[in-house]
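cron nightly-structures :: item 1 of 1
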Amino acid sequence: MITVRREISQDIPQIHELNTKAFGQPTEAKIVDRLRKRCPDILSLVAVDNRSIVGHLLFSPVIIEDAGAKSVGMGLAPMAVLPGHQRQGIGSILVRKGLQLLGDRGCPYVIVLGHPEFYPRFGFEPASKYGIACQWPGVPDEAFMVLELMHNALANTKGTARYRDEFNEAMRG
């Protein structure tokens, strides 16, 4: 049976290894490690099966900026499930729990850059519907999505969504 809980310090090596295996390279693991060290506002969840971590999900602050106005929500990234445990619903369990926890603490919205076949089942919609663009050029419209956790949280928000610098740093090396 899969259980979901917040990460603890003993989980860190296993989370790093899981992200590296799931993505086939270390970029996402580096993002997680850097955010954990520098950002106190992350939400890091693990999916556990028989005392082994089989999935991981990280949320970190995202800012939507437009002409000096800023709105702060959370970004869902990365999410990883060990290759041998994929397509068993573990990612869905992690997303549901994470969205519940963020909603409970008053997070207004969540941004995700991900599979357009997966995230709409949780209520994510193209961010362009709200006038929100991704900071990275060339991202397909259907892959950049947002979910309002608070009613009308995006009613007066539009602009460019910016992830934390750790994402760009990890991609550079």
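cron nightly-structures :: done
The CA atoms of residues 51 and 171 lie 31 Å apart.
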